[in-house]
C-alpha cells in the first residue's frame, strides 16, 4: 500500500509549535509540504530560523499569517496549501474555529489541550462535552479524523491508561489511575510559568475536579498532597489538580478512580497563593486611579518572564507517568508507566525546554500515524479510544521513550 | 497677652486629615475659622459629615476645592479665608507647592511627612536638603513659621530625641537613639497597607539609610532585625528601615547612632517580598499584550483594600517610641520614651484607626502651640529644634500620652 505524502499545517508559534516544527522536519519523509501559520508572521519566521541552528533545512517549512479564529480564512489557507493534517498547537482559545476549518476542508485535526472559553475559568465536567464533543457528528459526517489532546498530558498518559486497562491487569480489575506530572527542572528565575501564565494559572484557580468512586469529586487547589519517590527525579510532592484527561478517561475507561497530580515546590505555591489572595490572578478588570480598567492577570503576565525565554537556561528533568493499581493473576498489583525528559537535552535538540518537548513530540507522532493511515480513523476520538501500541513504539524512536516499573523492575516498554 | 484667634486651613482629605479635622473642632476655642481643602470637594464633605457622628458641630468646618499643586490658587484661597496656619496632611507630593503658598501669604506651615518626588524612590541623604530645606531662606525672609514633619514619626519621636539629649542623660553622653514603630493591630484582611500603598511601599523598596558612627550607612530592607519586649504590645520584631526623621536628627543632634525600626509580621514580609521580586511594586510602566502601558504599583494599589476602609474593624494597639542609651551620673543608662494608642478607641473618638490618629494629633497640637505663640518661631524648623516640653504636656491632654520606662519604672511623662 502506498500513500501520497500528506501536507501538514502547524497552527501556532509558541514553544510547543517550535518542537512540532523541528520534529516534522526531522521526519519530513513522512509528510509532503510542511507549513506553519500564526497571526504573527514574524513568530513563524523566528521558529523557521532556528532550524538552521540544528542543521535542518530552513526551506523545509513555509510560513503563513492567519487569524485562526477566522474559520473562512483558515479553511482558505488549508485548501490553498492542500493540507491534509492540521496540528493545532496555538492558544487554547482557538480549538473550535480550527476544528470548523478542518470539517469544512476534510483535513485531519490534532490538538494538545482542551478548548478554553476566555470568559470562563472552570466549567462543568466533563469539559470536552462543553465544546469539542459537540463537533463529533460533524467530523463523522465529513469522514474526517480529529484526535483530541495528543500532547503528553493529556495525550500519552491517556494511551498509558488504555494500556494499563488492556495489557497489564486482569480484565476489569483496574481500580486506580494516578497521573503524576513532575517538573523537577529549574529555570533559574525567581518565579516563572512554563507556558502562557494566562492559561497556566487557570488550571489552579478554579475548583479541582477528580474522578473518584465513579463520580466527580471537588476539592480546592493544594488541598490534597501526595509524595512519591520517582525514577531519576527522586522524592517529589504533587497536588490533586483538575486536568483535561480526567474528562475523557472517566467516560471511555471503566475505572472508578482517576486522578491527576501536579508537582509544585513550596516556593511556587507561596507565590501563587499570595497572587491569588491579593486578587492579582483575577480576569475581572479593576479600575486604576486614572480611570483605566486593567485585568490583573494580564499585568502579572506582563511582569513575569516570557516562558519562551526560559529554555536556554533550563536544567533538570521532567517525569510524567501513570501509577495504576488493579489485580494481576488475582493478586493486587501496582505499576508505573512513565517518561523522563532532560530539559537541556531537549533544548539542544530542538531549542525548547522539556515541557514543550513532551507536548510537541506526541502530536507529531500522531500526525505520522495519521499520515501512515494507522490512526486515520475518520471520526473524532480521544487518545484512549485508539490503539496505544503504535504510538508508544513510534515515540521510542523519536526522543520520548516509555518505561515501566513493576515487580519485574524498571525497563523500556515496547511492543512487537 | 491676648491673641486674635487664628484661622486654620487643613489641606488633604485622607485618614490623617479626618483626625486633624476632628481634633481642630474639639479644640475650636484655640482657633478662629476652621477650613478643609482638597482637590475633591466630596472628600472634604465626607469628613465634615463624620463630625455629627461624634457629637461635634457640622458647621464648624468650611470645605473648599483646590489643587494644592497650583501655588497661585492655594495662595488665593489662603488669602480669601485669611488662614494664618496651614496644616498640610495631603499627599507627600504637594509639600513644596503648599510651602510656596505659605511663603507668599505669610501663613504658618505644618506637615507630617517629607516631600516625595513622584519620579524618584530613594534620594541622597539628608533627604530634607533635597527639597524642604531649600526654602529655609524664603521662610526666614517672610518671617513665617514652618514646622516640618510634626506627625508622630517623624514628629513626636524627634521631640523625644531632643528630650533624651537635654533631660535624661549626662550632657553630650547619648550614643544611641533607636526609634521603634510597632503596629500590633489587626485589620482582619489578608493584606493591606495602612496608608496609600504608593507611598507606603516606597519606604521599603529603596536603600535603607541609617545614621551610625556619625555617618550614613546603607543596608537592604529586612536585612537587620531586632526584637523588643514592649509595653502593652509585648515581644515584637522590627527591621532597620529608612525614615524621614533620621535625616534631620543626624544634623541637629550630636548623637552618633540614630536608627529607625519598623515592625513587620512574617506574613507582611512574605507578601511584600513576593510582590517586589515579581516587579509588581515597580513604578516603571510595563506593556500589556494590548499595547497599553501600566505601572504595576498602581494596579497593586487598585486590588488592595482602601486603607480608609480598614478603620472600623481595626483592633489592637500601636506602640511607638525611642530607646535611648547614654550615661546618667557617669553610669550607662537606657530609657524608653513612648506612646501607646488603641485602634478601636481612636476609631470611636474620631472615626480613624490608630496610625492616622498618632499622625494627626501632634499636628493639631503644634497648630495650637503656633496659635498660642509658643512655637510661632518665624523660621523653618524640624521638631527637634523646638522646646519639646509644651508639646508633650499638651498632647497628654489630647489623647496622646507620653510615658517613660527607666530604672524608676514606667510612668506618665509630664513637665511642670
Automatic annotation (TrEMBL), chains A, B:
Signal peptide: none annotated. Residues 8-147 form the Saccharopine dehydrogenase NADP binding domain. Residues 151-399 form the Saccharopine dehydrogenase-like C-terminal domain. InterPro entries: NAD(P)-bd_dom_sf, Sacchrp_dh-like_C, Sacchrp_dh_NADP-bd. Gene3D superfamilies: Dihydrodipicolinate Reductase, domain 2, NAD(P)-binding Rossmann-like Domain. This is Saccharopine dehydrogenase. It comes from Moraxella caviae.
Amino acid at each position: 500500500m502506498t500513500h501520497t505524502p500528506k501536507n501538514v499545517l502547524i497552527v501556532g508559534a509558541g514553544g510547543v509549535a517550535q518542537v512540532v516544527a523541528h520534529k516534522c522536519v526531522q521526519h519530513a519523509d513522512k509528510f509532503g509540504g510542511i507549513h506553519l501559520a500564526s497571526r504573527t508572521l514574524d513568530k513563524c519566521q523566528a521558529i523557521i530560523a532556528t532550524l538552521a541552528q540544528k542543521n535542518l533545512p530552513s526551506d523545509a517549512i513555509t510560513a503563513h499569517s492567519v487569524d485562526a479564529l477566522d474559520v473562512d480564512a483558515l479553511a482558505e489557507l488549508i485548501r490553498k496549501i492542500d493540507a491534509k493534517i492540521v496540528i493545532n498547537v496555538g492558544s487554547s482559545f482557538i480549538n473550535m474555529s480550527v476544528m470548523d476549518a478542518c470539517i469544512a476542508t476534510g483535513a485531519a485535526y490534532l490538538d494538545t489541550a482542551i478548548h478554553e472559553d476566555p470568559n470562563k475559568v472552570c466549567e462543568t465536567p466533563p469539559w470536552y462535552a462543553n465544546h469539542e464533543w459537540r463537533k463529533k457528528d460533524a467530523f463523522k459526517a465529513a469522514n474526517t479524523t480529529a484526535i483530541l489532546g495528543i500532547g503528553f498530558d493529556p495525550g500519552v498518559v491517556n494511551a498509558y491508561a488504555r494500556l494499563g486497562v488492556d495489557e497489564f491487569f486482569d480484565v476489569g480489575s483496574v481500580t486506580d489511575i494516578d497521573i503524576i506530572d513532575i517538573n523537577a527542572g529549574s529555570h533559574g528565575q525567581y518565579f516563572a510559568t512554563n507556558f502562557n501564565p494566562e492559561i497556566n494559572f487557570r488550571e489552579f484557580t478554579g475548583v479541582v475536579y477528580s474522578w473518584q468512586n465513579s463520580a466527580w469529586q471537588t476539592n480546592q487547589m493544594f488541598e490534597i498532597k501526595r509524595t512519591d519517590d520517582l525514577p531519576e527525579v527522586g522524592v517529589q510532592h504533587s497536588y490533586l489538580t483538575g486536568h483535561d484527561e480526567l474528562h475523557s478517561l472517566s467516560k471511555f475507561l471503566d475505572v472508578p478512580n482517576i486522578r491527576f497530580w501536579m508537582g509544585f515546590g513550596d516556593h511556587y505555591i507561596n507565590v501563587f497563593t499570595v497572587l491569588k489572595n491579593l486578587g492579582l490572578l483575577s480576569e475581572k478588570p479593576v479600575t486604576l486611579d486614572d480611570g483605566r480598567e486593567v485585568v490583573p492577570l494580564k499585568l502579572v503576565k506582563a511582569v513575569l518572564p516570557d516562558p519562551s525565554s526560559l529554555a536556554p537556561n533550563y536544567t533538570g528533568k521532567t517525569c510524567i507517568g501513570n501509577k495504576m493499581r488493579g489485580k494481576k493473576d488475582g493478586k493486587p498489583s501496582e505499576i508505573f508507566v512513565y517518561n523522563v525528559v532532560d530539559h537541556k537535552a531537549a533544548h539542544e535538540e530542538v531549542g525548547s525546554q522539556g515541557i514543550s518537548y513532551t507536548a510537541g513530540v506526541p502530536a507529531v507522532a500522531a500526525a505520522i500515524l495519521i499520515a501512515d493511515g494507522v490512526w486515520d480513523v475518520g471520526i473524532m476520538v480521544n487518545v484512549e479510544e485508539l490503539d496505544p501500541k503504535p504510538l508508544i513504539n513510534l515515540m521510542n524512536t523519536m526522543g520520548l521513550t516509555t518505561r515501566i516499573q513493576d515487580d519485574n523492575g524498571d525497563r523500556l516498554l515496547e511492543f512487537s
